[in-house]
Specification:
The protein starts with 6 loop residues before the first helix and ends in a 14-residue tail after the last helix. By secondary structure, it is mainly α. It contains six helices and two strands. β1 and β2 form a beta hairpin. A two-stranded antiparallel ribbon has the order 1-2. About 40% of the residues lie in helices and about 5% in strands. The radius of gyration is 23 Å and the shape is extended.
Length: about 120
């Protein structure tokens, strides 16, 4: 009579389409985006057309490293909380790099401090 609902097992195995969409277009790391923004293009030139990207690669957000289907969607993205946080993060100090991670893990060059006495 009792027992588990048969639909519970199905829910655990359900495939999340949202996570699959996120990994469809690989995003650059924070440090790569930061370096690209620091170069700073003095002139805004037309982006090259790429059929594999949404909107032929014409509508992009450099801070979030995302491409959009049209200008309306891109402009809506500019108003989101996620984009505003990203702007704040990229305008601050440089994000951590691989070298920082290695030094923190103790894999970098040892720092023994200054020598006190030389003999």
């Amino acid at each position: 009579m009792g027992g588990k609902c048969p639909s519970r097992k199905v829910k655990k195995r359900r495939f999340s389409h949202k996570t699959a969409r996120r990994t469809k277009f690989l995003l650059k790391g924070d440090d790569a985006v930061f370096e690209e923004l620091q170069k700073g293009d003095s002139d805004k030139k037309q982006l090259p057309r790429d059929e594999d990207l949404p909107g032929m690669g014409q509508y992009c957000c450099l801070h979030c490293d995302r491409y959009f289907a049209n200008a309306t969607v891109r402009d809506e993205h500019f108003k989101t909380k996620r984009h505003k946080k990203r702007l704040k993060q990229m305008s601050g100090p440089a994000p951590h790099t691989q070298l920082d991670a290695e030094l923190a893990a103790g894999m970098g060059m040892p720092d023994n401090g200054p020598t006190l006495m030389s003999m």
